[in-house]
Amino acid sequence: MNKQAITTASSRPGRRWTIAAAAAMVIAAGSWTGLSQAAGESKDARGGYHQLRGDMTPEMSAKRIDKMIERLLPDGTPEQKAKVSAIAKTAASDLMPLRKQRREAHQQGMKLLAQPTIDRAALEQIRATEVQLNDQSSKRMTTALADISEVLTPAQRVRLAEHFAKRGQHHRGHRGDHDTAGRK
């Protein structure tokens, strides 16, 4: 799509809303594809999911991605699901080493903070490394999510954007409960 077509398309109110909804879905979709996560899932006592520490094998990641696609794209065609799966699995594979590097940098920072003397220059170096790794991850996620969005129909993008908007509100409210607990 050329720049003129984007400008024209985004100037129509209905189209603008669809593009905004698709953008919201793209941002939120990272949580359903598991692209940026190298942690597994396990049901807790309430039947909800929580993250386990540790790396996922590529096989575990692939299985998780396929389950999420089935759950969130029940109306997707087999071709759509296969394309989304391939995009998500490739991105997950690309993102796993970046996550490992971010985790290692974080651990180095924690070790530095535990030293008798604080090395501010070393801490700044680690911070800069973490920012650079986050930027690389964000770029890779954005590319994958844009690719996934192109596979979906506008109606599917809108439905998923609405789903993730509700999910985000739930998680923000849930964290808010924890933030105020014990402060009464």
Provide keyphrases for this structure:
single chain; 184 residues; mainly alpha; two-stranded antiparallel ribbon; 6 helices; elongated; disordered N terminus; disordered C terminus
Describe the structure concisely.
This protein has helices at residues 3-11, 13-33, 58-72, 78-113, 120-151, 154-180, and strands spanning 41-43, 49-51.
Q: Helices, strands, pairings?
A:
Blueprint: H1 3-11, H2 13-33, E1 41-43, E2 49-51, H3 58-72, H4 78-113, H5 120-151, H6 154-180
Antiparallel strand pairs: 1-2
Helix pairs in contact: 2-5, 2-6, 3-4, 4-5
Rg from C-alpha positions? Answer: 19 Å
* Structural shape: elongated
Beta fraction of the residues?
A: under 5%
Q: What is the topology, as strand order, of the major beta sheet?
A: 1-2
Terminus-to-terminus distance = 54 Å
Describe what you observe in this structure.
- With 184 residues, the protein is mainly alpha-helical.
- It is 76% helix and 3% strand.
- Strand 1 (41-43) and strand 2 form a beta hairpin.
- Helix 2 crosses helix 6 and helix 4 runs antiparallel to helix 5 (120-151).
- The chain is elongated.
